[in-house]
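S.,

As promised, the nicotinamide-adenine-dinucleotide run. Input:
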Amino acid sequence: MAKLRLIQCGVGGFGSLWIKEHTSKSPDFDLVAIVDISDKELHGSGDAINFPKDKRFKTLEEALAKVEADAVLTATPPVVHLPHAKLAFEHGLHFMTEKPIADTLEHAKEMVDLARQAGKQIVVSQNYRYNREVMKLKELIKQQAAGEVGHGHLDFYIPGDFTGTFRETMDFPLLVDMAIHHLDLVRYITGRNIERVTAMSFRPNWSWYRHEPGLKMLMELGALEHEPISHRIPFSYSGDWSAIGQCTTWNGTWRVQCAKGSIHWDPNGIAIHRCEKWCKNPTSEVIESGPLELQGQAATLHNFAEAIRTGKPAETSGADNLWSFGAVTAGVISAKEKRPVEVAEILGR
Ligand SMILES: NC(=O)c1ccc[n+]([C@@H]2O[C@H](COP(=O)([O-])OP(=O)(O)OC[C@H]3O[C@@H](n4cnc5c(N)ncnc54)[C@H](O)[C@@H]3O)[C@@H](O)[C@H]2O)c1
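Predicted complex:
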């Protein structure tokens, strides 16, 4: 099958991982141009993979004028995602963006509308979904391995140092830039949308971020098809991107409480714990996760190619992502206005 032609924008930071490990080695795409406003990043990453000098550009406009392509990937700061999406669609190309889809929900909606009008695919790289433990957890919950799901909790504690990058100064760095992965995972693993969010965001005294890297949040997950529409499941979130001490993994530490036991996902893997009343006769069942052919970014890149080839939206399409980014935005509004926020309302549904 002929390869698709890809322009990658943003080759510093996380984009350098994209180019070195994925876009330059993809079985689905030929990398035909790279773009970065920074000479250091453009040539540092370009030289690292021996990429032709005449295919390195400072702007996407310039790249689009000089090379033929089928698709654009942007791994730039969120404020750049909408302008890059506009350019891609104006030139009849498909578009994949790093998370979060955009800097604001309005821009995210605009990107999804533009893709629809252009008849092109828009995909968000929610790479955390493509992880063997995520797949196993999703399967256990679907099979009701510990009975009916009643509620859940997720902890995330990693003292990130993003000195000099946009996260150091942005508003709500944890909620917007990191928890987007976790909220997307909550939706994916449980199969339920996040319908209502009540959030408290804060800045611990010791924090080195300009804004608030701490978050306590309650999410209410919606009903499955066979359940009454009013059935909502509470799922809470605690996190601090400036927490010195015991760290979680980037996926966080999970407890999903079910009728007959609790399902746990932590650095040791997945386990189901069961017991009787007063904690009598406790048992622990360690659950093995099966192999996964494509993981993380490799999976989202392949899914992007499949969406282009088949014309069917990817699992992490822009339209699907509005529910994840909508939940993040509901958290931001809730934290600012100190009230619960309905996600459907801000999505205009
Ligand atoms: N999926 C993940 O696990 C993951 C991990 C890290 C970052 N990200 C996301 O990737 C995106 C980039 O984050 P980062 O950490 O790499 O940021 P960064 O600031 O470290 O790097 C961004 C790169 O984009 C370049 N750039 C900025 N504006 C540009 C423009 N207009 N045109 C072309 N290049 C431009 C910069 O020069 C830099 O090389 C963000 O949306 C971030 O949330 C995702």
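The CA atoms of residues 112 and 319 lie 6 Å apart. The mean pLDDT is 97.

- D.
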